[in-house]
Amino acid sequence: MAPIDPHSFTDSSHPLTTHIALTLFFDFPSSTIHGAAVLSLSCPHTGPLSLDTRALSIHQILDPDTHSPLPFSLSPTPDPIKGTLLSVSLSNHSSFLIIFSTSHASSALQWLSPPQTFNKTHPFVYTQCQSIHARSIFPCQDTPAARVRYSALLNIPRELSAVMAAKHVDRRPPIAGEGNTSFLSQGFGSLWAAEGRVVEAFVMDQPVPPYLFAFAVGELGFREVGPRTRVYSEAVDSVLDAAAREFEGTEEMIRQGERLFGDYEWERFDLLVLPPSFPYGGMENPRMVFLTPTVIKGDASGAQVVAHELAHSWTGNLITNKNNEHFWLNEGFTTYAERRIVEVVQGEDRATLNAGIGWKGLNEDIERFKDNLEFTKLKTKQEGVDPDAIYSQVPYEKGFQFLLRIERQIGRAAFDEFIKKYIATFKFKSIDTETFIDFLKANVPGIENEIDLELWTEGIGIPPDAYEPVSNLYTKIVSLANEFKLGRMPREDEVADWQGQEWELYLENLPKSVEASQIQALDERYRLSESKDYEVKVAFLQLAISSKCRDYHGEVEKTLKEVGRMKYLRPLYTALVQGTGKEEEKILAKRVFAETGDCYHPIAQGVVESIFAKHL
Ligand code: BES
Ligand code: ZN
User: Fold this and answer.
1) Which residues are identified as catalytic?
2) Alpha carbons 132 and 382: distance in angstroms, whole number
3) Ligand 2 center from residue 489 Cα (angstroms)
4) With contact defined as beta carbons under 8 Å apart, do 331 and 361 qualify?
5) Beta 84-101 vs 72-74: how paired, if at all?
6) Predicted confidence (pLDDT) at residue 197 exceeds the cutoff of 90
7) pTM of the model
8) Which of 128, 116, 88 is nearest to 213 (CA)?
9) 312: annotated binding-site residue?
10) Closest protein CA for atom 11 of ligand 1
């Protein structure tokens, strides 16, 4: 047994899965998916084969041709991070059929009851699989080292529709017995072709890591926003219209991405705006990016998130980190690529402002990990570590800094050529840090004499040759924040054309704790606690909590009940529960979570629980 990924039971001596054929029956009343999956291997295998599962019931494993049962076993107790090992015993099989069901503990799935949706009439379900949650929907070798093609038949109530990060091929009546459905557990096979059901069929012809598997099912609508882009969301005209306006510049960004990084290989670039409980800003699911509704606010930041997820089409989805220890290859490259796109479509000042917000975030997270320096490295050891628990700006912003350092060394023109060649060389492959460094050295001879590559990839903290971004706007905002410490608030004329990102940078550069009266004065003048922009509102509320200004507990509670994006939950819950002399804050945090935790995505629930475990 030789693992290839600290977060997976996949065994390096076993063949990898190359194709998965999924048949999924959605039972909304019980929030369960009853499924059948045919896994095909790269070559026939005899003996045990290890698969990842989490919170799944495995009913049967069958020979796909004869339907005779194959022996299997599940590990008796789940690993707290990896889940449950499923071992199936094969005899020269190159494929096998698994019959399974999901459960309430399936961590990738959030089921929303009708009252939890915008229109309040139909249920909704969606996935979030990165980093290691695909295994809670279907058994698989849940490591990005394994790239799979797949097909999927989704059987759903006729009044709903489905989207996937895959090509939509059909919406049609179900056919009794198709796709191994006669084996579905608890008699759901016989309901497959029942009245009122419909099948949505999809295929993903390009090999993708399992964490890019994604679907959403609900009462969906869409608007066309470009030749290869639609924006989808719950069918609410006001949401769809606002989203269509927000993302009208998408085609221009795709063209800029192609100019910089090579052809767009995924055919479509659709966007799906999820309900407010979506735990991330955006998720780069191929062909169909998932987005939080909080990015729709009519300024530059919505396009910035789209630029980031679009950039993953090259860095992350074409070239993928081999496992999460090399996550910076995904996010550092994407942050660099995102800022190159933003620079062209929104100008250099905006790109530098984003880099400045990132620089601040990097410094804060380096501080956050001062007792756990491993996670200030680009390449990290993650044996026994939950990727959701160590999510930070380090892979994004230190990775960005590393690439910027190389760009500054060799010049932009040479670096642009290098990146294009890197993408063309490794597309549809999963690679590690060493592979990147070897490629860098081979293509930029002597680079190791100019930049300490080992310090950058394996060292802790921020290397001395990292580069704090400078621009007039950035410097002005940081110096205004420094003046606040001396008691001067920015004048109205100084902030007249500030957007959310300017305020965000300003607030993040204020001291962590100030006088309650200063907080109130700032808010009286600029109404930051009521901002429609959650970046601004949360940065302000965080400051208010850490300054023990209790006037804002009502706003804090409201915010924690409105949105489930972890970028907001993490700092607010942490600010409430960390430190001493904060009984009132701790009680508030516990009560709000007890009242609302159920409405968060399971991944977000887990993150809040781990914040409580650390501080309470
Ligand atoms: N791939 C990430 C989101 C992610 C990371 C999900 C790790 C699960 C585990 C996505 O591309 C991302 O970075 N989103 C950011 C967007 C931002 C950097 C513009 C987010 O959600 O805040
Ligand atoms: Zn990303």
Assistant:
1) 309, 396
2) 13
3) 35
4) no
5) antiparallel
6) yes
7) 0.98
8) 128
9) yes
10) 283
Ligand 2 centroid vs 328 CA: distance in angstroms? 10
Q: How distant, in Å, are the alpha carbons of 276, 354, 490, 578 from that of 360?
A: 26, 10, 20, 21
- 496-529 confidence digits (pLDDT tens): 999 999 999 999 999 988 899 999 999 999 999 9
Q: Which three-class secondary structure string do you get for 472-538?
A: HHHHHHHHHHHHHHCCCCCCHHHHCCCCHHHHHHHHHCCCCCCCHHHHHHHHHHHCHHHCCCHHHHH
At 239-266, the pLDDT tens digits run 999 999 999 999 999 999 999 999 999 9
Rounded CA separation 319/400 (Å): 16
Q: What ligand has the least distance to the C-alpha of 566?
A: 1
Number of helical (H) and strand (E) elements in the chain, helices listed first: 20, 19
Cα separation, 216 vs 155, whole angstroms: 12
The answer to whether the CB of 294 is under 6 A from ligand 1 is no
Q: Which two three-digit tokens encode residue 104?
A: 């309430």
Closest-approaching ligand to the CA atom of 282? 1
Dump the DSSP string for 291-316.
E-GGG-SSSHHHHHHHHHHHHTTTBT
CA distance 292 to 270: 14
Ligand 2 centroid to residue 343 C-alpha, Å: 18
Q: H helices of 204-299, where? A: 237-246, 250-261
Do the beta carbons of residue 10 and residue 146 sit within 8 Å? Answer: yes
| Planar angle of CA 156, 161, 164, nearest 5 degrees | 95
Instruction: Say what the pLDDT of residue 10 is.
Output: 98
pLDDT over 80 (residue 1) = no
Q: Of ligand 1's atoms, which has the minimum distance to the CA of residue 338?
A: 19
Mutational pocket test of ligand 1: of 131, 278, 283, the residue with most ligand atoms within 8 Å of the beta carbon: 283
Instruction: Tell me how far the alpha carbon of residue 442 is from its chain's centroid.
Output: 32
* Tokens matching residue 59: 């009913």
CB atoms within 10 A of CB 384: 11
| 98 token code pair | 């698994």
- Comparing CA positions, the residue from 105, 90, 609 lying closest to residue 386 is 609
The pLDDT tens digits for 10-21 are 999 999 999 999
Instruction: Give the separation between CA 487 and CA 288, rounded to whole angstroms.
Output: 48
Q: In whole angstroms, give the CA distance from residue 351 to residue 337.
A: 11
